[in-house]
Amino acid sequence: MKLTQKSLKSVLLASTVLILPAEAIAQDKPELMTVDVEEITVTGRYVPDEKRATSEIANVLDSEAFALAGDSDIASAIQRLPGLSRTRDGYVYVRGLGDRYSSTLLNGSGIPSTDPLRRVVPLDIFPTSLISSVLVQKTYSPEFPADFGGGVIDLRTKAIPDDFVLEIGISGKYNTEATGKTGLNYDGTGSEIFGFGGSRRDIPEELLKDVTLASLTPEELEAAGEAIPNIWSIDSEPLYPGAGFDLVWGNRYDVGDESAFGFFTAVTYDINQRHRDGVRRTVTTSNAGPVIRSNAAPEVCDMPEFDGEDVSGCGVRQSNTDISLNGILSLGYEFNADHSINFTGTVLRDSSKRALIEKGQFAQEDALRTRSFIDWIESQVWTNQLTGEHYVNLFGDSDTFQTTKINWRANISRSDRDVPLRRDTTYEYNPQLDADLILARTDSNTTVYNALDEETMEFGLDFVQPMYIGGFLADVKGGFTYQDKDRSFGLVRYNFAFPAGISTDLRALAPEIIFGPGNIRPGGITLTEIFDASDFYSAQFENIQGYLGADIEISPRLRFAFGWRYENSEQVIDTVDRITLDPLLVTQKGEYWLPAATMTYEIVDNMQIRFAYSQTVNRPEARELSTARFLDDERNISVQGNPELRIAEIDNYDARFEWYFAPGESLTIGAFYKKFSNPIERSSRALGEGRLITYVNGESGELKGIEVEVEKILDVQDWFGWEFYGREFYVRANGSYIDSETVTATADLGVVTNAVRTFQGQSKWLANTQLGWRGDVDNMSLILNYTGRRQALLGVFGAGDEYENPPLLLDFVYSREFEVGSNILEVSLEAGNLLGDEIEYVQDGVITEGYEIGRTFSIGFKYKF
User: Fold this and answer.
1) Domain containing residue 371: CATH number
2) How many CB atoms lie under 10 A from the CB of residue 182?
3) Strands 728-743 and 368-392: what pairing?
4) What confidence tens digit (pLDDT) does each residue in 80-89 have?
5) What letter would DSSP give residue 298?
C-alpha cells in the first residue's frame, strides 16, 4: 500500500529516536570540533505486524511461519492459529463453526468449490509454496462478503519478486501405516501418476445415445453394457513412499526510469499413498440400550455363528493414492510508482484413487457380507484474475483530502469435479456352500458416473480516501462487487440385473467373469438404469454488493472503524421433487443492510483493547437446496439437500486485549459471542441399512468462547550462559475454550434425539504449542496440536449424537541451509504424528469408525540459485 504523509497508516509507523553522542566523540577525538546537536524525537507507535495494524481482530501467517512449522498445505498451517481446527478432508473450522460458516477468498475474490457437499474449497489443495500469506479475520468488516459466521480466510498468492529467484525442490515421504505394506488397488491407467484418469473411464458413446436407456434396442442395450470397462476387482499391491517436486522461478526487469515488468511462476507435484485398517459400525437404540445395526470389524469373523467356517478379513480396509499438481503464473507491470496492473492465473488439481473393502455383518445377524468400492475422483480449480492498483490525486493540493487509492479486479474461476466409473459390489457368505456369492439383487452391483461444474465471474472496485474530518484523521473506504455463479450437476446410476434362476456357481465367481461380455445379452444379464430425476440439477446465483465505511483516529489512542454493507442476492435451483417427480424451481432472495463497527483503544504505547459488533448472514448453497443425493467420500454416507432451507442471520460480538511487549512478542486475550437465527446444520435419517444426511434450520443458536495467544522470544543464552551460535529461541502457544448451543426446529422434534445440543464440528477445547529456534542457517520446531471432541452427526430416533475424537498431533521440523558454490542447498526433515494417535468416532459408547493414521517421516532438498 502506498502511504501519504498524512495517511492514517503513517501514524502507526515505528518510533524513531536519533541521538548524536557528541560528548563521547569529543572525548575520543579532542582535536575535532564539537557541535551541539539537539535531540530529535519522532513520535509514533511500533507496529510489529498486520495483526496489530489492522482495525479488526485477525491473525496472519506468512511464508516464514509456513517454513518454521514445515506445513506443506494451508489447511495444516492455519489450524495452528487460535480458535481454528481442521477436518481430515482438508476443511477448516473457525471458532468451532463448520466450514459452511467460513468464507474463503483468493486474492480477495471468491473461489468455487470442487466438493458437491461443501460450500467452500478444501484448503489442503493449496500448497504453502504458492501462498505468500493468509489473513484469518474473525471480526466482520464491510469490505468482505456478508456470508460470514466464524471468519474470513483470505489467501494471498506470491507476487512478483524484487530480484531473480529460482528454486528446485524434491522430497520423499514414509508413512508407518502405508509405505512398504500391502494395500489395495485396481486396474487403472498409466496417466494416473500425474492425476489424469484417462479416457478409459469416460462414459461410453453407446451410453450417451440415451443415458436413461429407455430408447435403446436390445442389441444397443447389450452393446452399452459391454462397452463399460469390465473393471471391478480389488487386488493386493505394495504401497510405495510418497514423492514431491516443486519449482519456483521469477524475476523483475526495469523498463526505463519509472516502469518495471516482472513475472513469477511455480509448479508443485505430490503423490502419496494412504492406507487404513479399521472398523465401521452404525448404531440404533432400543429399550435395552444401543443396538449395532451393521458391524464391519475384525471381531465379526470370530463370532460363534461363524465358528469353524473359512471366514477372515472382517473390518474396513481402504487404500488411497492422492495426486496433486498445481501451478501459478503471475505477470505484473508497474507503469510508475502510482499505477500498476497484475495478472494471476492459478490451476489446482487434486485426484484420488480409492479402493475400499468392508466385511462384516449387515442387515441381519447371521449375514456376513463383503462390500467392495472402487472410484477415481478428479478435481480441478482454475482462476484467472486481473487486478489494478492506482494512486490518484483527485482533489489537487488539498489539506483535507490526500491521495486516493483505487483497486479493481476482474476474476473468472471455474471448478470441475469428475467421478467416472465409481463401482461397488456386495457378496454374502453362504455357509452351506462355504463360498461368497454376489447378491442376486439389483443393488448387488452399481456403476455410477457423475460430474460437477461451477463457474464464477466476479468484478469489483474498492477505494480508500485518506482525509481529515473535523480535525480527525480518517480513511474513508467503499466499493462494489458483482458476482455471478453457475453450477450444474449430473449423475447416472446403473446396475446389471440378473435373470431369474441364475446359478450359484456363476454368482461365486469374480465380477469380471460374472459381467463378462459372454453373459451380457438379452435374456441374460442386462444393463438397467436406476433413474432419479433429482440426480440432475442446475443452479444460478447472482449477488450485487456494495459497502461504505470509515476508519477514524479520533485521538492518538482511540480508533473507530465502522460501515455498512448492502447485498442483494438471488439463488435459483432447477431440480425435481424426489417424491412426486414434479419439476421443482427453488428461488431464494435475500436483501440486507449489514452494519459493522470496531473500536480500538490504546491503553499505553504497547497495549490496546478492541470491541466489535456486526451483523452477517449464512446462505444455503445450491447443493443444500437440491434434492439430489451425493456420497460423502470420507464416511461413505449418502447426503441429500432440503429445498425448504432458509437464510441464517447472525449477530457477532467480539472483544480482545493485545499486549505487544517487544518486537515479535505479544499476548492477546479475546472473547466472543454469536447469536444465530435459523442456523443451518446437518441432520440424519435412517436409509436402508445405513443413514441419510440432510440439512435443517434450527430454531436458534449461540456460540461463545475465549481465546488466548502468546508469542515470546526465549533468552536461553542469558538464562544458562550457553552459546547457541546466534540462534533465537521462541515459543508460540494458543488455547481456546468454546461453548455453543443450538435448538432444534419444531418440525424435527421426535426425529432428532437431542433437541438442544452443540454446533456440529465444535470442539470445546483447542490448543497449539510451537517451540523452536530460528538461526542464520537452520530452523527447528516442535509442534503440538490438540483438538477436543466434536460432534460429527446428529443422533435420530433415540440414538445419541456421534462424536469425533481427533488425534493429538506432535510434529517435528528441522531445516538447514548449506553453501554449494555461490548457491544454497536447503535440507529439511519432518516427522508427523510422533505420538501415533488415531482417529475415532463414538456413538452411545460404540466406536462407529476408527483407524490408525500412522507416523509420517519426510526428507526434502531444495536448491536455490
Assistant:
1) 2.40.170.20
2) 12
3) unpaired
4) 788 888 776 6
5) G
